[in-house]
């Protein structure tokens, strides 16, 4: 299966629809920034979206990026059989052994 078109529709106040603005969309609207990337999966949250390109082997993310939830920054997420997590961690949901937020990806030691 190959996705060649992504349509964003809904609340866009944090840029999570991928249109380059913060406008709501009442009808599905083409997201041209993803053209030609052969996106194979999407994950949509209330305030952010991620897309994975199988041919590029890259993850693209956009929307509200507080607590590092978009994964942008100086760190690189590797594909070397590591499970990493980052973002808000108020209940220990990152699996890092603490309740501290992490703005950069960290390896989850329990998966070694």
In short:
This protein has strands spanning 7-10, 25-30, 39-44, 48-53, 58-63, 84-87, 102-107. Helices cover 0% and strands 34% of the residues.
List the topology elements.
Layout: E1 7-10, E2 25-30, E3 39-44, E4 48-53, E5 58-63, E6 84-87, E7 102-107
Antiparallel strand pairs: 1-2, 3-4, 4-5, 6-7
Q: What class, by secondary structure content? A: mainly beta
Strand arrangement across the biggest beta sheet: 3-4-5
User: Low-confidence runs (pLDDT<50, min 5 residues)?
Assistant: 1-5
What is the strand tally? 7
Number of helices: 0
Beta content comes to 25-35%
Share of residues in helices: under 10%
Spatial extent as radius of gyration? 15 Å
Shape: flat
**Mind describing the biggest β-sheet?**
3 strands, antiparallel
What would your notes on this structure say?
The chain is mainly β. Helix content is 0%, strand content 34%. The protein has strands at 7-10, 25-30, 39-44, 48-53, 58-63, 84-87, 102-107. Strands 3-4-5 form a three-stranded antiparallel beta sheet, with no helix packed on it. It has a two-stranded antiparallel sheet with strand order 1-2. Strands 6-7 form a two-stranded antiparallel ribbon. Strand 3 (39-44) and strand 4 (48-53) form a beta hairpin. The protein starts with 6 loop residues before the first strand and ends in a 5-residue tail after the last strand. The relative contact order is 0.14. Residues 1-5 have low confidence and may be disordered.
